[in-house]
Amino acid sequence: MTESVSKGAPVAVVTGAAGGMGEAISRRLHRDGFRVLVTDVDEAAGHRLAEDLSPDGTTSDFRRLDVSRKPDFEAALEHLRDAWGEPTVLVNNAALTRAADTMTLDAEEFLGVLSVNSGSVFFGCQVFGVAMAEQGHGRIINMASLAGENGGTATGAHYATSKGGIITLTKVFARQLAASGVTVNAISPGPHDLPVVHDTVPEDKLAAVVSSIPVGRLGDASFIADTVSLFAQENAGFVTGACWDINGGLYLR
Ligand SMILES: NC(=O)c1ccc[n+]([C@@H]2O[C@H](COP(=O)([O-])OP(=O)(O)OC[C@H]3O[C@@H](n4cnc5c(N)ncnc54)[C@H](O)[C@@H]3O)[C@@H](O)[C@H]2O)c1
Fold it and tell me: CA 195, CA 197: separation in Å to the nearest integer?
């Protein structure tokens, strides 16, 4: 918890913020002086984080936002306008991480993960992009993945395809919003030392994944948060449409 965020501070929204990278990002942006709207479908954990950041709710609050629903983005924006004012930062972080056998992957499951992961970034960039463009300033950061670049190692075709889509959507919205003072960038993490990695990848397979990482270890979410913080800065206006790889050397462009 920090005490340095003031009531009139700029506003950031983080999706999928209840745990993992989203929590690290929310804590970092709050430390940077943003009022942070923590959003997720996990209401208990989301409330806990917001209350930890700001017990009286003045500089952090929780709101349920299901990223598969465009109306939820619209409602969150309206809520912010009533409560805190216009947002300047959106972090599209929420995603479903899934592993699956490619040749037997069910069509419905494929399209479901694709729709939630890529659709959420499309909705977020549309709804918040318009609002930020009207203000003449904004920073949107989309969480992609190494899987979207190399086709995935431990994750399924649905997840990898959705993350490739996020990298492309980042370029589409970056170009669309560039002249309005709004930047749109992506981060492509490789495997990080986080619960979802340990839950998705069996331990024996994880050992093989770790030994294949050139730097010899999993990533640390705090550096992802530092990178989001950098993209969110006011003077970061000359970088847009970029995708920054944070993958321990697993994929070299
Ligand atoms: N952890 C890694 O190693 C890694 C690697 C590459 C990319 N990423 C990406 O980074 C982001 C965060 O990863 P993480 O490890 O924290 O994942 P995580 O699974 O721990 O967290 C995802 C969060 O999104 C929320 N969520 C799921 N569906 C949602 C929905 N429909 N609406 C709103 N919230 C929803 C979950 O409740 C959860 O809090 C994801 O986009 C992930 O694909 C992570």
Answer: 5
Q: How far is the CA of 138 from the centre of ligand 1 (A)?
A: 23
- Tally the domains of the chain: 1
Structure tokens at 202: 């069996």
Structure tokens, 170: 């980042």
30 CA from centroid of ligand 1 (Å): 19
Integer CA distances (angstroms), 35 to 46, 106, 221, in order: 15, 41, 20
Q: Is 116 in the pocket of ligand 1 (CB under 6 A)?
A: yes
Domain interval for residue 235: 11-246
Could you identify the atom of ligand 1 that is nearest to the CA of residue 92?
41
Residue 252 belongs to a domain: no
Question: Which one of 34, 73, 159, 231 is the catalytic residue?
Answer: 159
**CATH number for the domain harbouring residue 177:** 3.40.50.720
Q: Is residue 93 part of a domain?
A: yes
Phi, psi of 132 (to 5 degrees): -70, -40
| Rounded Cα gap, residues 59 and 53, in angstroms | 8
Contact of 65 with 72, CB cutoff 8 Å: yes
251 part of the active site:
no
Within a domain: 3: no
Q: Is the pLDDT of residue 4 over 70?
A: no
The tens digit of pLDDT for each residue in 138-189 reads 999 999 999 999 999 889 999 999 999 999 999 999 999 999 999 999 999 9
CB neighbours (10 Å) of residue 233? 11
pLDDT per residue as tens digits for the range 20-69 = 999 999 999 999 999 999 999 999 999 999 999 999 999 999 999 999 99
Instruction: Tell me the whole-structure pTM to 2 decimals.
Output: 0.97
Within a domain: 74: yes
